[in-house]
Amino acid sequence: MASFTLHGIPVSRGISIGRAHLLTPAALDVKHYLVPEEQVEAEVKRLQDAIAAVHRNLQDLWTELPKDAPTELGAFIDVHVLILSDPMISEAPLDIIRTRHYNAEWALVTQIDELSAQFDEIEDEYLRERKQDIQQVAERVLKVLMGTALAAPPVRAAGEDEFQPQMIVVAHDISPADMLAFRDRSFVGFVTDVGGQNSHTAIVARSLDIPAAVGMSQASRLVEQDDWVIVDGDAGVVICNPSALVMEQYRARQAMLLKARKRLLKLKKTPAVTKDGTPITLLANIELPDDCAPALDAGAAGVGLFRSEFLFMGRGGIGNAGLRVPSEDEQFEQYRKAVLAMKGRPVTIRTLDVGADKPLDPTEHTALNPALGLRAIRYCLAEPQLFLTQLRAILRASAFGKVRILIPMLAHAFEIDQSLSMIAQAKQQLREQNVKFDDGVEVGAMIEIPAAALALPMFVKRLDFLSIGTNDLIQYTLAIDRVDYEVAHLYNPLHPAVLNLIAMTIEAGRKAGIDVAVCGEMAGDTKLTRLLLGMGLREFSMHPAQLLAVKQEILSSDLTVLQPRTRRILRAMEPAAIAEAVEQLQTL
Question: What is the pLDDT of residue 399?
Fold first, then answer.
């Protein structure tokens, strides 16, 4: 059979080799026909019964979750239950059946297509990829309507030949709930046509530590059942029907990676200290309180970024990006849970990062360019009661451990002053209610706009710490939409402008005597660890799965050697020269 290679988005490291197991979307086989008037209510009931059956199935999956299952799986099943219960799914298709006389499958697909179009307009990468959750829920309902089920490979029997080929799941998309169907089977990797770094397939694949590549576009159509497949999760490459030589090379690489991972596990309790004796702080990025367990297991010294907007998602209102405001008590309980779970280690909570492209009010006007609109702190200052509610909840959690408040997207002095004033107001309100909190909670800023990096004196004068959000900083510096695949090749963390803005921020923090962290994707990229160390970075915050690999780089780094080399890199302006010099750092 002909060999070919597909290129997509790397989302979970490692190499897996196995036979392709294809999952065909039920939506591809949906029939469209009109229902006679006298059969409309029967068709309505058929859809209602299918939704109820899926609801029961999801509840069963939740109760059957094994104790060692990643916390993300349970959270995502909860999200799918909420989506299934939302009127946009549970009621709107019924109206389509009644008014247009569509059959149940056609009505559901019609409604999902309309919702998907709304999500395509969302700028935020994470929220835009939540479209996949809606489509995954609809897929489950369609399978019930059509009498089909998830075609999972058979469970490997005890004593079965250990050399039997393992399975690579290839699908247009796969839901976290469907992933559970493969839990006891010999699957070793995932390949999907759609998705990105923040798709649920990617998040669960990382939590399971299984190689995966997403955004492959046509993989499910080009790859055939039982084809030999290699998934290179580090490069985002899928090789179908490789030659014997290529297969041998990848098996050798796979064996080397497995040995390297076993060595990494021995570093969990090893302090992160460079060869010259400089201590480095390694923190974890989390989305939910349950993420604290894997963070601690990886040896994180605390939470460097708690993305609080995740608490506002999956609360109904699918047509409005799934955003609803949790109460102060609800937020407090989640923050407190994270603080207690970290057992005295610091937890940095980023305030709500929504707005413009993801309005809480669906009637609000959506900006033409949401990335530059009313979002993050701009939105919070425009909605003071919402902001005060969150600040009170965060402050209340500070009574149970070390908490820091991180403000996103600051660019102006008046935004910093207003934010600090709001925090002071929230403290006063809690005092009046005799509610305990830590009056010395530190407040920091996300440096993710070039204007902020170029005006650091006004930040270090007012704030306690800084955290560089490299994802947005690169996006805004290079004027690139980082979720637009047509310009993705221009997204370059090694652009000299980006490197100099990061270096300026680190140096400004050093001179002011305040902590500076990097919490974007650059922090977890081992190819950039030594460069960041050479710039003076002493605090990294990343996904827990990346922490040990970064620690290994730190342990083998000598700052006395890296710093002069890094200064030369920062003076360079030619991309090729910078890339070559950064690569050479890995050999020092």
Answer: 98
Helical (H) or strand (E) element with 459: helix 456-462
**In angstroms, rounded to a whole number, what is the distance separating the alpha carbons of residues 499 and 50?**
53
| One-letter amino acid for residue 115 of the chain | L
Judge whether 467 and 304 are in contact, CB under 8 Å.
yes
Six-digit token pair at 470?
């490299």
How far is 294 from 292, CA to CA, in rounded Å? 6
DSSP H helices in 101-243: 104-120, 125-128, 131-146, 176-179, 200-208, 219-222
Q: In Å, how far from its chain's centre is CA 254?
A: 26
Which pLDDT value is given to residue 365?
46
**Does residue 230 sit in helix, strand or coil?**
strand
What is the rounded distance in angstroms from the CA atom of residue 167 to the CA atom of residue 187?
Answer: 4
Question: Dihedrals φ, ψ of 196, to 5°?
Answer: -150, -165
Q: Give which of 466, 476, 449 is closest to 541, Cα–Cα.
A: 466
Q: What is the DSSP letter of 186?
A: T
**Local mean pLDDT, 10-residue blocks, the chain (588 residues):** 86 88 70 91 94 88 65 72 87 93 92 82 65 83 77 45 69 72 69 76 72 87 91 91 94 90 88 97 92 92 92 53 74 96 97 63 51 87 95 98 97 97 98 97 97 97 97 91 65 94 97 96 92 98 91 96 96 94 93
State the pLDDT at residue 119: 76
Phi, psi dihedrals of residue 479, rounded to the nearest 5°: 55, 50
Token pair for residue 289?
């309180």
Give dist(CA 51, CA 12) in Å, integer: 32
Alpha carbons 297 and 545: distance in angstroms, whole number: 10
Q: What spatial distance separates the first Cα and last Cα of the chain, rounded to whole Å?
A: 44
Question: How far from the centroid of its chain's Cα atoms is residue 394's Cα?
Answer: 22
Output the pTM of the full model: 0.70
Helix axis angle, 496-512 to 470-478, nearest 10° = 130
Distances (CA, A) of 474 to 287, 411, 467: 22, 15, 14
Q: What are phi and psi of 293, to 5 degrees?
A: -60, -55
The answer to whether 80 and 175 are in contact (CB under 8 A) is yes
Give the per-residue pLDDT at 107: 93
d(CA 21, CA 253): 23
Which among 394, 396, 417 is positioned nearest to 406, based on CA atoms? Answer: 394
Query: What is the 3 state secondary structure string of 29-47?
Result: HCCCCECCHHHHHHHHHHH
Strand 303-307 versus strand 15-23 pairing type: unpaired
Cα–Cα separations (whole angstroms), residue 72 to 131, 516, 529, 545: 18, 29, 27, 13
- Residues with catalytic annotation? 200, 519
